[in-house]
Amino acid sequence: MKTLINKVALVTGSSRGIGAEIAKSLAQAGAKVVVNYANSASEAEKVVAEIQAEGGDAIAIRANVCHSAEVRALFESTIAHFGKVDILVNNAGVMLNKKIQDTSDEEFDQLFDINVKGTFYSMREAATRLEDGGRVINFSSTTTRLMLPTYGSYCASKGAVEQLSRIFAKEVGARGITVNTLSPGPTNTELFTQGKTEAFIQQLADMSALGRIAEPSDIAQVVLFLASDAAQWISGQNIGANGGLA
Fold it and tell me: Does the annotation mark 37 as catalytic?
């Protein structure tokens, strides 16, 4: 169903993985979509081409969310092209699996630059640029609910996103804007599977109630719901999309 007709969605980090699937799902629901990327221009254009091939409307815009000026320009370019922004999905992020004692200053800073600052800069722009009745969907992780060794710094960055989201929901709620956090469990993407053994991935799959890890489409469908009018009374929440893992 075309539940997002006349809506404009901006999805950060959407050239591949979960972000790409989100962009395509929102377009299939009728939204005009901005596919944001930092480095993967060809992959972003491929996502745009797939959306257009199905009759959707999308453009790719480069912006590194680590830099506030680039995030500002991302919103300005989106509004210049489509006229407005209704839906913001802060999907851009990086993961690190390292014990706290082995994590370098540079690795810690990179996690917070992308995962936290990127989300913060985008929300700050959304505070004045998002349309009334808009939607903000930020990404955390189910790992914040677990005590998994080597996930400490990553969980710290995602915990910050969760708290920013809760407060932002109160700050923009009077305009009918909802703000929610989505916390996927293990998902079959390059970001998740890289550096992990098949045995470890299967171990995580066995921990879920449904006995598998997610596919990107599983996560995209939850985003689609949160972006729709059906979710207008859900705000300030952290939704676990993890198959009953935690």
Answer: no
